[in-house]
Write a structure and sequence with these properties.
- This protein has 4 helices and 6 strands.
- With about 130 residues, the chain is α+β, with helices and mostly antiparallel strands.
- The longest helix has 10 residues.
């Protein structure tokens, strides 16, 4: 299952509006990613503390999850954070099986291209791919 949570400012609003798409298809996710207002959200003044962004969550029936967070900043730039948890482990420490990767200074197009292949594979496969980078 793929869930997408995203936020951005509409019009002259100071605070972002939050949106969610539960059980989204790959096509819906790609539409959200490509239609997101990257230019306006990335160019907000630094005093606007609550910024927008996109959070993509892929889960399976084994409670394994892969999450991708894209945070826009500056003119046509963003950061991409990827995290996969296959096993939460005892007390969240012992036996935990997870991997995290940060991709900084990407264009929105590069971030979308990084995420796109992961939308059609299993969470364990995403784990293997990210662990090998």
């Amino acid at each position: 299952m793929i869930n997408v949570h995203y936020s951005y400012r509409e019009g002259d609003a100071k605070e972002p509006t939050h949106f969610s798409s539960e059980n989204a298809t790959i096509e819906q996710v790609m539409s959200i990613l490509t239609e997101y207002p990257w230019d306006t959200e990335g160019n907000l003044p630094t005093e606007e503390h609550a910024g927008g962004g996109i959070f993509v969550e892929i889960t399976n029936h084994n409670k394994q999850e892969a999450t991708f967070q894209i945070v826009p900043f500056g003119n046509e730039h963003c950061m991409l954070f990827a995290n996969v948890v296959l096993k939460k482990g005892f007390l969240g420490i012992f036996g935990k099986q997870s991997v995290s990767k940060d991709f900084e200074e990407l264009t929105p197009e590069q971030a979308i291209e990084r995420i796109k292949p992961f939308l059609s594979i299993s969470v364990p496969s995403i784990y293997e791919e990210l662990a090998s980078i």
